[in-house]
Amino acid sequence: MEIEYNSTKWFIAGIAGLLIWIYYFFPLLKNKELFLPSNAKKGFRLFFRILACAVGVVGWVYVTYSLTLPRIPMGKAESKIEVNDIFMVMDCSRSMLADDFEPNRFEVAKQKIIEFAELRPKDRIGIITFAEKIFTLLPLSTDIELVKRVVPEINMGILGNGTNIGDALGVAVARLTSSPTKNKVVILLTDGVSNVGNLTPLQAAEEARAQGIKVYTIGIGTDGNARIPSFRPGQFQNIPGGSIDVPTLTEIAKMTNGKFYYAKDDTSLEQVLSDINNLERTEIKKSGVVLYKELYYKYLLIGFILLLTSEMFRRVFIRDAV
User: Fold this and answer.
1) With a threshold of 0.70, does the pTM exceed it?
2) Which of 106, 143, 107 shows the shortest CA–CA distance to 126?
3) Residue 79 lies in a domain
4) Domain residues for 21?
5) Are residues 219 and 250 in the same domain?
6) What total of structural domains would you count in the chain?
7) Could you tell me which of 178, 177, 166, 175 has the C-alpha nearest to residue 204?
8) Among 49-58, 186-195, 258-267, 280-289, where is mean pLDDT lowest?
9) First CA to last CA across the chain, in angstroms?
10) Do 99 and 156 have their domain in common?
């Protein structure tokens, strides 16, 4: 296998160290502190100085090479994790801008998704957004930091008008079908009635039940009238209170052994988390990390021995003053 180098920036430091060492090894700019008699064997000392210098240079080469952290990949080590697979399916229709939540339903839903992910570090979380169209924002992932980055970027209006609950639920079910986990969960957050799409919500729920997928449904909104921004800047319009399709959401949850929650405040999602915490996790294989045979310590040891040998030659045979 080919050698890989985990760090190359320290190579320059090794070169700098070699140059500094050579400068101090040859005292060209230093005053002599040791005077030998005229009959001293200068040829003998010169030979050992050259030999010591060569040994030292080779030693610095080894040290410098070790600083690049050479290593040989030996393969991957498989690991296993216990998880639930959970898809968050979030309504992004215009009514989610209603101001009966602070600042609105849309922003509260996004914040709760992030809080949910932070509480489930061992689970795989996926996110699907929908209005008239469906979009898989995030496939199943254990990367909580990724969830925290992408959720704030969810925007209103890019998926058209309408509330396509059936198709959104159907996409989540399709993505969970191939999952090897025992517990597959969909959490559906919506404030409206399905009015577009190819699948009805109950048809999608039927498929979820066939695949053993639980669906927790959350109707977001208060009983009273709520306002949404009108198309005129600075003005609002009322939307009917109680517009959530409670019977359908309740039936979806009942069919799939999930639960329906009426989120009249921002605590209902926490109740869902409490229920999911009781689910048994399934052990699955996770992509393993690459194992390496580290080589740097061998070169570092050889370099250290050669530099030590060079220093011994300098002190014993050349007798440079230090």
Assistant:
1) no
2) 143
3) no
4) 4-74+289-318
5) yes
6) 2
7) 166
8) 280-289
9) 45
10) yes
